[in-house]
Amino acid sequence: MKLRFSKMHGAGNDFVVFDAIHQQVELNAEQVRFIADRHFGVGCDQLLLVERPTRKDADFRYRIFNADGGEVEQCGNGARCFMRFVHDKGLSQEGEIRVETASGIIRPRLEADGQVTVNMGEPRFDPDQIPFIASKQALTYELALEDEVVEISALSMGNPHAIQYVEDVETAAVARQGAEIEAHPSFPNKVNAGFMQIVDRQNIRLRVYERGAGETLACGTGACAAVVAGIRRDLLDPAVQVATRGGVLTIHWAGVGTPVWMTGPAVNVFEGEIDLG
User: Fold this and answer.
1) Is the pLDDT of residue 133 over 90?
2) Which is deepest, 67, 168, 200, 254, by most CB within 10 Å?
């Protein structure tokens, strides 16, 4: 089975994108892991499928698979690449499209400067909706790790996030704590672990240990979650520049009951074809 693909990235968070409208794409977890492997496959953090919608109120369906082969609900950097892909491939010439995901409809918009803005929907804070095991909703929670207790903010951006504040992202225990937080029993579906350094009220630095992928150079939903967590604690203004290891994302959030808006790059790296046998 030979499949055509595009290799793309959004601020260094990289993807293999398949047009599943004009070619039949049926992949099992082993094949996803092979494609994502950086030595034996193409290499990526996530694999994205562009499909026909199953809902009348959507233009496309967007499916996301992590490098470990598991399917997940949402990926913000991937959403921007999705928009760039359907525009560059002539699948849509609309400046804004409606995209069906496992967590609802998102609306990416192509900007005049080539960047993409995405309405990421409203954040969710109810523990049951994250999901997160807690007796009640709170601004912060104490999470017991093997050798320490960390303070986190827990929320969903269509996928679960645990955000903690660190003095310096360069020295933060991202690999050690990230793996432990990701698999913490308080998060039944696992969680993305974010480490945020607040520079000032309009700027943060961020590293994210993603579910099923490990640390990535950028995480779009993680950037949204970090800014939301900071705004809720009155540490940040409504518009924030998020510096990741792969680039800068701009996040806007007006507060509870309103959607989060994310703007950032979406870059096509190369086109290819892979033979899956």
Assistant:
1) yes
2) 67
